């Protein structure tokens, strides 16, 4: 079974005993060598709070849950608290990365990810040439399998794909669910 990252963006993070959410999912931090989810990047609900927190993948019991329940707020980590295997590079965002073919031809930007539900492994990147939020449902998308990725840097994703291959049309752009 797989889940699209766009289905979990905005999900609330709640702490036991509190009714109000303390944060919402904003992005994903992935290991760029293995494609494993390291953490969900979460933001506080108030606009004046600009700090980002990280909900480590080890603390996520079920990624398909309607919200994420924590026993205590200390489970959310700040960037300086992450070390060792949780080290994040300077640029950790998965969404918005520029994608290009091995020949250097642009493929668009990453607008969505697909994770397998069990291991929280990235299986596909969904790219679009112009990720304009209100137009994205009308524009074709390209799905790039993890196996086709050559490298991921801080600013781009390079894949072994033919940029002339047909794109998924908007009406068929939903990713299949196993």
Task: Give me a quick take on this structure.
The protein is mostly beta strands. It has strands at residues 2-4, 12-15, 23-30, 37-43, 53-56, 68-70, 76-77, 98-101, 106-116, 122-128, 142-145, 149-152, 156-159.
Quickly count the helices.
0
> How many strand units?
13
Structural class designation? mainly beta
> What's the shape?
elongated
Low-confidence stretches: 171-178
Oligomer: single chain
Question: Into which percentage range does the β-strand content fall?
Answer: 35-45%
What is the H/E order? EEEEEEEEEEEEE
Radius of gyration over C-alpha positions, nearest whole angstrom: 17 Å
Estimate the mean pLDDT confidence: 77
Q: Which percent range fits the helix content?
A: under 10%
Largest sheet: 7 strands, mixed
What is the CA-CA span between the terminal residues?
5 Å
Account of the 3D structure:
The protein is an all-beta fold and 178 residues long. The chain has no helices and 13 strands. The strands form two sheets. Strands 1, 8, 9, 10, 11, 12 and 13 form a seven-stranded mixed beta sheet that branches. A hairpin with a 3-residue loop joins strand 12 and strand 13 (156-159). Mean pLDDT is 77; it is low at 171-178.
């Amino acid at each position: 079974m797989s889940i699209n990252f766009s289905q979990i963006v905005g999900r609330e993070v709640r702490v036991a005993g509190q009714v109000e959410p303390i944060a919402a999912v904003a992005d994903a931090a992935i290991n760029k060598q293995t494609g494993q989810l390291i953490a969900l990047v979460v933001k506080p609900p108030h606009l004046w709070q600009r700090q980002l927190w990280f909900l480590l993948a080890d603390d996520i019991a079920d990624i398909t849950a309607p919200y994420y329940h924590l026993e205590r707020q200390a489970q959310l980590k700040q960037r300086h608290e992450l070390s060792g295997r949780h080290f994040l590079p300077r640029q950790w965002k998965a969404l918005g990365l520029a994608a290009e073919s091995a020949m250097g031809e642009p493929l668009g930007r990453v607008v969505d990810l697909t994770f397998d539900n069990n291991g929280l492994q990235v299986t596909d990147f969904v790219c679009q040439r112009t990720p304009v939020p209100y137009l994205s449902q009308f524009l074709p998308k390209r799905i790039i399998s993890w196996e086709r990725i050559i490298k991921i840097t801080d600013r781009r994703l390079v894949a072994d794909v033919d940029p002339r291959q047909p794109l998924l049309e908007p009406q068929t752009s939903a990713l299949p669910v196993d």
